[in-house]
Amino acid sequence: NILYKESEHFNPSLSEYDYKVLLFPGDVFRTRLYLTLKIEQTNSLLVAGSWRIITITILLLIFMIFTFYVVMSTILRQRKLSVLKNDFINNMTHELKTPISTISLACEAINDPDIPKDKESMESYLDMINQENKRLGSLVENVLQTAIIDKGELKLQRQKLNLNEILEKMVKNSRFLATSKGGGIEFIEEDKDL
pTM for this one? Predict the structure, then answer.
C-alpha cells in the first residue's frame, strides 16, 4: 500500500525511509496511504545548499574581528594620549609654578619693610624677577614649539650653549628661594668647557 513517485533517482528496492507520514489519518473507509521520503547523501545536500550561508558567515566573522581590532587599538591609543596629556599638564603646571613662586618671593622681599633695600639686593631681586620672567616666556615658547612639532612644521637650528652659564643662572635664581626656606644652594664649576 505504498504510493511511489517515479523519478530517475528513485530506487524502489529501498525499504528504509527517512520520513514516513500517514495520509488521511482520520479516514477509516480507505486503505492506509503513506507518504515516505528517503534522502540519500544528506550531508552533501546540506553542504551544497548552505555553502553561501557558510561563506557569508565566515566573511561576517572576519569583518567583526577586524572591526574589534580597530576599535580596541583606537581605545588603547586614546588611553595613551590621555596619559601623555595628563603628564604634560602636570609637568607644565610644576614648571610654571616654580618661576611664579620665585617672582612672588622676590616681590615680597622688595615690599617687606624688615628686609634692607640696599642697591645690591634690589638689583639682585630685580635680576631674579627678570630671569624668571624670561623663563616663563621660554616655557610658553616651548609649548608653542611643541604644537609646531605636532604639526610637523619644526625646523631645528643648532647652536652651542655653555652649560655652566645655564646652571649658574639656575642656581642664582634658586638661591633666594632656598635661603628663604632655611636652606642653601651653591654652584661649583668643575669643567670650564662644559
Answer: 0.44
pLDDT tens by residue, 120-130 = 888 888 888 99
3-class DSSP assignment, residue 7 = coil
Q: Are residues 63 and 152 in the same domain?
A: yes
Domain span including residue 186: 157-194
Residue 135, SS3 per DSSP: helix
Q: CB-based burial of residue 106 (10 Å sphere; 0-12 exposed, 13-18 middle, 19+ buried)? A: buried
Same domain? For 59 and 145 the reply is yes
**What is the distance between the alpha carbons of residues 75 and 69, in angstroms, rounded to a whole number?**
10
CATH number at residue 97: 1.10.287.130
Facing residues of 23 across strands?
33
Co-location of 48 and 81 in the same domain:
yes
- The single-letter code of the amino acid at 56 is I
State the chain's maximal CA–CA distance in angstroms: 134
Element (H, E) at 34: strand 33-37
Count of C-beta atoms within a 10 Å radius of residue 7: 7
CA dihedral angle for residue 128, residue 130, residue 135, residue 140, rounded to 10 degrees: 150
Q: Would you say residue 185 has pLDDT above 70?
A: yes
Burial class (CB in 10 A: 0-12, 13-18, 19+), 14: exposed
State the Cα–Cα distance between residues 137 and 143, nearest whole angstrom.
10
